[in-house]
Write a structure and sequence with these properties.
This is EthD domain-containing protein. The chain is an alpha+beta fold. It has a single domain (32-198), classed as Alpha-Beta Plaits, CATH 3.30.70.100. It contains six helices and six strands. The strands form two sheets. The chain has a four-stranded antiparallel sheet with strand order 2-5-1-6.
């Protein structure tokens, strides 16, 4: 495997305060992105009653293992949590103009890479998403904010420039580095939903 550290990750490690750096996710591999893959970047806003470090902790330690089995089932080839924050104009996916000219805050960016639009739509329609994932989102995302807390969403085709060579085998695997018991718990819960609804 190729170990890659991006310039942005290096800057993030220097610029983010130590309190946040302890929870920062910087994977040591960058998967190849197939030509014609799609990517969704979703700028998410935390609930106002939640401190940012609690939001980041919940997003990584609780939400990530909930999402992982669903993402793997539907061939999502990349799910990353970009633990950045700031302000952005509200933006709906596929629209040229912002939804508002008033800046809004965001507390993280979710990145999904997937082979085509139907994969993401199918994933979001799965009963596990509606019963488990969406339920957890309501615990830490400000659902009253623009677009249900996804204050800016960008969806586009990915044009790969750097990645693994032709001889490397890229298989989507769960690379979440949290607690193994938590991973197993949500994998089993997902398997139960998937079996019940899809045999």
């Amino acid at each position: 495997m190729h170990t890659q550290v991006t310039v942005l990750a290096a800057y993030a490690a220097v610029l983010i305060p130590a309190a946040l750096a302890a929870h920062m996710v910087v994977p040591n591999v960058t998967p190849s992105v197939a030509s014609n893959s799609m990517q969704m970047l979703s700028y998410i806003k935390r609930k106002s009653c939640m401190r940012r470090d609690d939001f980041l902790r919940h997003w990584f330690e609780v939400h990530a293992p909930i999402v992982a089995p669903l993402a793997l089932k539907f061939g999502i080839t990349g799910y990353s949590q970009i633990q950045a924050f700031g302000q952005i104009l509200p933006q709906n996916a596929g629209e040229d103009d912002p939804a508002s000219n008033e800046l809004t805050s965001f507390d993280g960016i979710a990145s999904f890479i997937y082979p085509n639009a139907s994969v993401l739509l199918d994933m979001l329609a799965h009963p596990y998403y509606t019963a488990v994932v969406a339920n957890d989102e309501a615990k830490f995302i400000d659902k009253k904010a623009h677009n249900g807390g996804q204050v800016a969403v960008y969806v586009a085709e990915v044009v790969p420039v750097v990645g693994y060579g032709k001889n490397d085998t890229a298989v989507a695997v769960d690379i979440w580095t949290g607690d193994e018991a938590t991973r197993e718990k949500y994998q089993a819960l997902f398997d139960e939903y998937d079996k019940r609804h899809f045999g």
